[in-house]
Amino acid sequence: xxLYLILLPMLISMTLTAFLKDKLVRSxxxxxxxxxxxxxxxxxxxxxxxxKDLIENFSWFNIETYTFQISFxxxxxxxxxxxxxSFISLLILIFSVFYMRREKQEKYYFEMSLFIFAMLGLVxxxxxxxxxxxxxxxxxxxxxxxxxxxxKEAASKAAKKALILTKVGDVSLLxxxxxxxxxxxxxxxxxxxxxxxxxxxxxxxxxxxxxxxxALSKSAQFPFYVWLPxxxxxxxxxxxxxHSATMVASGAFLLIMIAPLMYVSGTMVYLVLISLxxxxxxxxxxxxSVDTKRILAYSTIDSLAFMFLAVAxxxxxxxxxxxxxxxxFKSLLFLLAxxxxxxxxxxxxxxxxxxxxxxxxFYVPAFIGLASxxxxxxxxxxxxxxxxxxxxxxxxxxxxxxxxxxxxxxxFRLFFTVYxxxxxxxxxxxxxxxxxxxxxxxxxxxxxxxxFFFNSIIPIAYSFDLFLVLDSIIALLGLFAAYYFYxxxxxxxxxxxxxxxxxxxxxxxxxVLASTGTAITKFGxxxxxxxxxxxxxxxxxxxxxxxxxxxxRELQSGDLSNYIVIFIAGxxxxxxxxxxxx
Amino acid sequence: MIPYEYIFYLTSILFVIAVFGMxxxxxxxxxxxxIEIVINAAxxxxxxxxxxxGYLNGVSYALLILVIAVFEAAVAIxxxxxxxxxxxxxxxxxxxxxxG
Lengths: 582, 100
Hints:
The structure holds 2 protein chains of 2 kinds.
Chain A: H1 8-19, H2 24-48, E1 54-63, E2 66-74, H3 76-99, H4 107-124, H5 128-146, H6 153-184, H7 189-194, H8 201-218, H9 227-230, H10 236-244, H11 247-257, H12 259-265, H13 268-288, H14 292-312, H15 316-344, H16 349-354, H17 360-374, H18 380-388, H19 394-418, H20 431-446, H21 451-454, H22 466-486, H23 493-503, H24 509-515, H25 518-552, H26 560-580
Antiparallel strand pairs in A: 1-2
Helix pairs in contact in A: 1-2, 1-4, 2-3, 2-4, 3-4, 3-10, 3-15, 3-20, 4-5, 5-6, 6-8, 8-11, 8-12, 10-15, 11-14, 11-15, 13-14, 13-19, 14-15, 14-19, 15-17, 15-18, 15-20, 17-19, 17-20, 19-22, 24-25
Chain B: H1 4-24, H2 28-53, H3 57-87
Helix pairs in contact in B: 1-2, 2-3
């Protein structure tokens, strides 16, 4: 077995596209073919090593007697994630051919390859140190991709914000890894998880809390969620990748992977609390937003909070199923948003409404994607809810119903505002846009049935009970409410929107901070101050080296006699030292 | 026969004089002469050592140093001559402006 083969195609793609500077068509071809190769390889591995638990070690370097190892793991969880990641990446790269056709910068395919490489590496690594390396690599490549159009000030600011806020998580992840390493003496993830009983409880709790902070910042949960909506300045294909299979999914994947550690740590109740706060903040903010991509960004935060809620209620496999389903329909939605941007040139939902978009080729995939997001019965989201909610207590179920209503309301607000019954637009179709969207739409429609044989891959618990019936009825209610409010063209939707805004004004970020008390306000200020302090630290390093050089350049006066004095003084000093016998 | 300490006294005095000259004289020609004196002080040390202890190594080093000193003087004087042609000046402090 050669598990590193999964990583090889993206590595080749990275190298080639990095050096093929001005050959856009060729680097596009390389990236797409290499991603399909990595899909092929991971599928073959998935087939060959099905239901096996294999670990592959290579020794990397030694420090005294301890050997650091590069370690890969092959079991159903990791290989399934590799298949999903490369599949979604392939579709998005095909869509990039359509979306980035006018883009002049060549580094796009290099950065995308780096991004996919980092995520693939993350899902197959079995060593914490390797995991951390890929985790950081993903931070860097997402920084590069969010700031892709760096001439725009908003883009470069958003990239910086994402980097700094996820850096908080990176540091806490590293701290957690060090704490575990100090206690177990091994960096292997599987060995750590099987040797949990030897670790003192206090270290378990601390490291689990740090892992949770890392996951929260990577997955843009409260209170770190502010970077994700701003990251919408990136090209839409990047957002699609960032939101579905990579970046934000890696936070949830971390918690799913180390779930045994989470459950002995006793921190789950806080995770429930944070997920619930995140669900409400994000869905209310999505209701208020008027930008297609921002609404989708808030919906991602919302969906990730669902996953965290499932992890926190001791149901990591349900979270994994939701993660995979979410990757499918969220990339579909982002690709649709990207199509609208390219064809109609705007992201504002009210401007899009004015354009009277109503061809089935636009609204059918959009309906499928948004219905999946809302959890309407035959689509993906419904099945995902069935397994997600398996371990919910009654109170969480009740709260979750409200969340479902809000999710459904903002999803169909987007749908009924943008799309129109009989459209008048004239648009040329592009096969590079149609193929991925059609594939993802079909998957979103019928893919939910995979729940029934998912059990043979990873043991999963689901139930179609009264709660689920109520949940889907509530989702449908949200649909009808959105239809009533937003589809009627004569309805003063702008007025309603203003009214909603005045009701929900308390949920914009600053207001939430103000109303939930000074403690959280202080935290928000702390994040800002942290950003400032970091900037000042960099400044002071610069000015320090400047002043040092100001002193040291006086030595190089060009005066020969000065040099001789220094030289002779040095020689005398050496002689004295030799005489003294040092 | 002269005791060999005396030879070392002589070379030490020569060395100190030369260093003094390097520090105090501001003329480039004087500077080169001082360097020559430093080198020759070392050379005499080698030769004297060779003579008193009966090894030929010292003399061969002395010969080597002699040749190197000649080359060094030739190069230095050539540079000084060109410098003088261009600037009409032999002051060492004037070299400061080249920031070397």
